[in-house]
Amino acid sequence: MKYLTLRNIRRIYSVFFLGLFVLLVAMSDFRNMKGYEVSLFLELDPLVSLTTFLTSWTVYKGLALSLVIIMGTVLVGRIFCSWICPMGILNQWTSHLFNRRRPVDDYGINAYRPLYRMKYYIFTALIVLALFGSLQVGLFDPMAFITRSFATSLFPAINYWGTDLYIRQPLFHGGVLIALIFLGVLFANRFLSRFWCRALCPLGAFLGLLSGFSLLRIRRDVEKCTDCQKCLRYCHGGCDPHAELRITECHVCMNCIEDCPEGAIHFGLPRGTSSMHAPLDVNRRRLIETAVAGIILFPMMRSVVNAKSVPQEGVVRPPGSIEEGDFLRRCIKCGECMRVCPTNVIQPALLEGGFEGLWTPILINKIGYCEFNCVLCSQVCPTGAIVPLTVEKKVGRPPFKKPVRIGTAFYDRGRCLPWAMNTECIVCEEVCPTSPKAIWFETTEVKLHDGRTRSLKLPRLDPAICVGCGICENKCPVHDRPAIRVSSIGESRSPSNQMILEG
């Protein structure tokens, strides 16, 4: 039993959970994967559950799993951060691999710093925005952050250097920016171990608040402690276990218990000689200032042109997406739908739909198209921003009467080969998947420049049949700016984003 130590047990658990997370994200584009398997870590996230509840006043079915983490935290503290969280585990490994310091330097690095208050201010701002109906938790939540980074940057990069040349290389809109932010977070560990976890993570702040009620804690025996500070060397949270341990910062990594040469630290209920725990270290004035800043920021975000205030033609949401206002109140920008999309059409938005829509999913048909019989994106959304669909419901097969429409295609006759250049082209009609086809031809006699005439098929589109899948735009031979393009108008999810006149 020599190697069955608390440190090694935690390492085994961390390897297991990080490996499980990577496996679920990597395998999420396999059609036999279920939505609840792929989004497991996101559904375990208490911060996602809390903020989506505040914005929509409902708890989506899968998010009930977060109660497991909440109850565990109230019982034993922030065990999630060091034992389960893939972002925390990755930060810890990065800190360990790229830093080789003397013990005295580790003591200084792992001591508590006022900088660690920052995550509580970030948490406060996100909660205030959520209370007003703006869900921005996906910008900082570790589960959404790492899922989005893996899906849009890491796995595409691995695929690029892979050996299988038959797999289409996925491309992502703004993927470099997401990759740089992710790499920047990892690189910050070079200067301060677990920088993200200690200073920025709002989920850590939420779990820290909950851990203040924990029954079982790390405790220090003041009579045995010699203040050697050896417990600081491998401390994950920077919680000062050698002094008045800051329970809200403790990650329950258990390293201090094994590193203490006097046996002065234990985990469990208090003893007669146990030291007191330090209270939460936040500046109340800063908290109030942060809350006020959030209150001011909210109307600024809502008083601009975005996809909610004015429908935007380029903001075409995945099939099954709910109405734009509700969509923004539920989408956490995790990128799961982008990862599972077989044609790579679902992309992270930049500012097409306003700041609130940053990194939310949109369809860019020059990159891919919405596969007519595919509903994978609706199966993996952890918060209900995209409701589950069946193929029958999406395409309008019985018992459903109408298909799900995500937009409408329009011809640019000045760029269409038959209309503008008298050149035969039937690509858009050939690839149209609806039955009957939304694209049809009008045969007419056209006069050529040399005086001859020829019979030519001119494409036309029936907007009542078109579902906006975008395959016509994707396959159009006019590659730089296709002659047929899909707009968001006519989408099933919006009663207002419709054409005024009907033919």
Overall description:
- By secondary structure, this protein is mainly α.
- The chain folds into 3 domains: 6-162 and 169-268, no CATH class; 324-395, 2-Layer Sandwich (Alpha-Beta Plaits), CATH 3.30.70.20; 408-487, no CATH class.
- It is 39% helix and 8% strand.
- The chain is built from 22 helices and 8 strands.
- The protein has helices spanning 6-26, 35-38, 40-43, 46-56, 66-76, 79-83, 86-98, 103-109, 118-131, 142-160, 175-187, 195-200, 202-211, 255-259, 284-302, 324-328, 336-340, 376-380, 391-395, 417-421, 427-431, 471-475, and strands at residues 217-220, 265-268, 346-348, 361-363, 408-411, 439-447, 453-461, 484-487.
- The chain has a two-stranded antiparallel sheet with strand order 1-2.
- Strand 6 and strand 7 form a beta hairpin.
- The protein is elongated and about 105 Å long.
- 47% of the residues are buried.
- The mean pLDDT is 89.
What's the topology here?
Layout: H1 6-26, H2 35-38, H3 40-43, H4 46-56, H5 66-76, H6 79-83, H7 86-98, H8 103-109, H9 118-131, H10 142-160, H11 175-187, H12 195-200, H13 202-211, E1 217-220, H14 255-259, E2 265-268, H15 284-302, H16 324-328, H17 336-340, E3 346-348, E4 361-363, H18 376-380, H19 391-395, E5 408-411, H20 417-421, H21 427-431, E6 439-447, E7 453-461, H22 471-475, E8 484-487
Antiparallel strand pairs: 1-2, 3-4, 5-8, 6-7
Summarize the structure.
Helices cover 39% and strands 8% of the residues. It is built from 22 helices and eight strands.
